[in-house]
Write a structure and sequence with these properties.
Pfam family, one: GFO_IDH_MocA_C3
GO molecular function: D-xylose 1-dehydrogenase (NADP+) activity; nucleotide binding
Oligomer: single chain
CATH topology of the largest domain: Dihydrodipicolinate Reductase, domain 2
Family: Belongs to the Gfo/Idh/MocA family.
Radius of gyration: 21 Å
Helix content: 25-40%
EC number: 1.1.1.179
InterPro entries: Gfo/Idh/MocA-like_OxRdtase_N, Gfo/Idh/MocA_domain, GFO_IDH_MocA-like_dom, NAD(P)-bd_dom_sf
Order of helices and strands: HEHEHEHEHEHEHEHEEEEEEEHHH
Distance between the termini: 68 Å
CATH superfamily of the largest domain: Dihydrodipicolinate Reductase, domain 2
CATH architecture of the largest domain: 2-Layer Sandwich
Number of strands: 14
CATH class of the largest domain: Alpha Beta
Length: 406
């Protein structure tokens, strides 16, 4: 009964957290777009943070932006053809969240940085590695914070005492625990990893169409970035090659990948399989299915983590010691006692991400971060995956090309 009650509390508090009292001078953040992602990626997490509030939102559609602002209690709105730039020019804003289509990330991140705003931009950070490099270089030159929203990694560590032994200290306690078991040598040498990111179809227009190519979309771009990043993290190194890759195109566009399965090769004969599906059919036609799971195979056993995307709702870490014939199941919903890291059982990956972003903007040094090297590397390998599939990598954005025209 106790675990059932805890589950209900976690679910409710994750999506409907109580609004906390604000500090005297909290950061002010604006949102470019009224897309649905903002509600759980930023607005809900902000409610439980005392040092930031959503002050403004922009959309070209006046009716839509006013309705969105009223629903989420956002005091300032901008609309019309110059809505995004008008929001960026607002002197009250300290930061901006950019959940726009992939091909628009470069343009509006550059414009936001030039307007003096810190930026939290959705993944993938850009359409190409070259765009990502420029974005970080500009942020560094202006002494502004730029964070790519790979929220599955932007979390506080399982135990700060492990900091010296881990390459990246920025995952949910559950995923951090998987990494710690690998690094401990308990199961012997790492041999193989498998990461899945399969999401349910919600509507027919979720299927990719030909024009989505220029928007830098695709199963690999939209959700494969999670798989590639996690495999890099667990391996503790960069890939050295792409093995076999197969894909199933969208029914509406042969140049757009809907399902992708492939292999990344790492040093030491370690391999990592990744699987993506951007529109998994509903069970019996009505029940949404999803699979965000990891499997790690070592010389002496294996680890399986279920539900790495929303681990605060429910997850399990199954550790099998094959040579000893033993199996155990672990669950970790918050940082280890005594670690000093903030976190509650109901904190989502987005809430941990916000914690790190605010801390960085305030001049702190969060124990986890998505670096320039991380963002660029992910895009490099996503491009290599497309090349292995025989598909063209996503093109540079129109704005990137226009700013280079003579």
């Amino acid at each position: 009964m106790g675990s059932a009650i805890s589950f209900i509390v976690r679910v409710h508090t994750t999506f409907s957290p109580a609004k906390v009292a604000l500090n005297p001078d909290p950061l002010q953040i604006g949102i470019l777009s009224t897309g649905k992602l903002s509600a759980h990626a930023l607005i809900a997490p902000v409610k439980s943070h005392p040092d930031i509030e959503v002050y403004a939102v922009a959309s070209r559609d006046e009716e839509k932006v006013k309705k969105f602002a009223k629903k989420h209690d956002i005091p300032k709105t901008y609309h019309g053809k110059n809505a995004y730039q008008d929001l960026l020019d607002d002197p009250r804003l300290d930061a901006v969240y950019i959940p726009l289509p992939n091909s628009m990330h470069y343009e509006w991140t550059i414009k936001a940085l030039n307007a003096g705003k810190h930026v939290l931009v959705e993944k993938p950070i850009a359409s190409t590695p070259e765009e990502a490099r420029e974005m970080y270089e500009l942020a560094d030159s202006l002494n502004l914070v730029l964070l790519e929203g790979i929220h599955t990694r932007s979390l506080f560590p399982y135990s700060l005492s492990m900091k010296a032994s881990l390459r990246n200290n920025r995952f949910h306690p559950a995923l951090q625990r998987v990494k710690a078991i690998i690094d401990s040598g308990e199961l012997g040498k790492l041999k193989h990893m498998s990461a899945k990111a399969l999401i349910p179809i919600q509507r027919s227009d979720q299927l990719y169409v030909p024009s989505d190519f220029d928007l830098a979309k695709g199963s690999v771009m939209d959700i494969g970035c999670y798989d590639v990043d996690i495999l890099r993290y667990l391996a503790g190194s960069e890939p050295i090659g792409v093995g076999s890759v197969t894909y199933t195109p969208s029914p509406k566009a042969q140049n757009m990948d809907k399902i992708v399965e492939g292999v990344l090769e790492f040093p030491g004969d370690v391999t990592g399989t990744f699987s993506t599906d951007s529109a998994l059919p509903n069970l019996l036609g009505v029940i949404p299915q999803f699979d965000f799971s990891l499997t790690v195979e070592c010389e002496e056993g294996s680890i399986k983590l279920s539900n790495y995307m929303v681990p605060q709702i429910h997850h399990s870490i199954t550790v099998t010691k094959t040579t000893a014939g033993k199996k155990r199941v672990e669950k970790l919903y918050k940082p280890a006692p005594g670690s000093g890291a903030p976190g509650e059982e109901w904190w989502s990956t987005f809430r941990y991400q916000l914690e790190a972003f605010v801390q960085k903007v305030r001049g702190g040094n969060p124990p986890q971060w998505v670096t320039k090297e991380d963002s660029v590397s992910i895009l490099v390998w996503l491009q290599k995956v497309y090349e292995k599939m025989g598909l063209d990598p996503r093109p540079a954005s129109k704005y990137y090309l226009e700013t280079r025209a003579d």
